[in-house]
Write a structure and sequence with these properties.
This protein is α/β, with parallel strands linked by helices and 209 residues long. It has two domains: 154 residues, 3-Layer(aba) Sandwich (Ribosomal Protein L4, Chain: A), CATH 3.40.1370; 41 residues, no CATH class. 33% of the residues lie in helices and 15% in strands. The chain has seven helices and six strands. The chain has a six-stranded mixed β-sheet. Helix 5 links the parallel strand 4 and strand 5.
């Protein structure tokens, strides 16, 4: 599969890049994509939730009333879960939600997501560019030239471009990532995927190893 390279003015450069069929032309595996997204979202959960049970609540352990003869239900101490301010029964405990996923499944999921974007025509290749200083207006002009202004777009660069990243921070529905941080969830969570030529080379190199 070949795709035309655009410049930052949105014009065709007359050059084409080759998109490997084993990366951008595979049959999408929906289950692998589901597992990869599930792992991503699960790993983002902190799992720091905690609640005190009756043994951890502050209060006296004195029996509140005699066992029988009161006409009401028997009760122990004030930390009883049935009382206001008492402990919680089987409350949440700190835990990890992380999920392990095989490397081959993760790779298949990323290939599936990239292939889906390519087949839908939502993949753009642009020339490598950089800014001398953060300029949000220049970044918005690039999006407008690529007809992505107001659209949910993800720009992927070869390496961390500080000025480009800072220029995009105040632009809604837009994100900038380096190629090494591109995952299945990031590809799916955007309408248009914009790859720089350097980022495309990095992706090829990643899947070649």
């Amino acid at each position: 599969m070949k795709l035309e390279v655009l410049n930052i003015q949105g014009q065709k450069t007359g050059r084409e890049v080759d998109l490997p069929e084993d990366i951008f032309g595979v049959e999408p595996n929906e289950h692998a994509v589901y597992l990869a997204v599930k792992q991503h979202l699960a790993n983002k959960r902190q799992g720091t939730h905690s609640a005190k049970e009756r043994g951890e609540v502050k209060g006296s352990t004195r029996k509140l009333k005699r066992q029988k003869g009161t006409g009401t239900a028997r009760a122990g101490d004030i930390k009883n879960p049935l009382f206001r301010g008492g402990g919680r029964v089987f409350g949440p405990r700190p835990r990890t939600y992380s999920i392990k996923l095989n490397k081959k499944v993760r790779r298949l999921a990323r290939k599936s997501a990239l292939s889906a974007k390519a087949s839908e025509g939502k993949l753009l290749i642009v020339e490598d560019f950089s800014f001398e200083s953060p300029k949000t207006k220049e970044f918005v002009n690039i999006l407008s030239s690529l007809e992505q202004n107001g659209n949910k777009a993800l720009l992927v660069t070869a390496d961390y471009e500080k000025e480009v990243y800072l220029s995009s921070r105040n632009v809604p529905k837009t994100n900038v990532l380096r190629a090494s941080d591109l995952g299945t969830y990031e590809v799916l969570n955007t309408n248009t995927l914009i790859l720089s030529e350097g980022a495309l080379a990095k992706i090829k190199e990643t899947f070649a190893n």
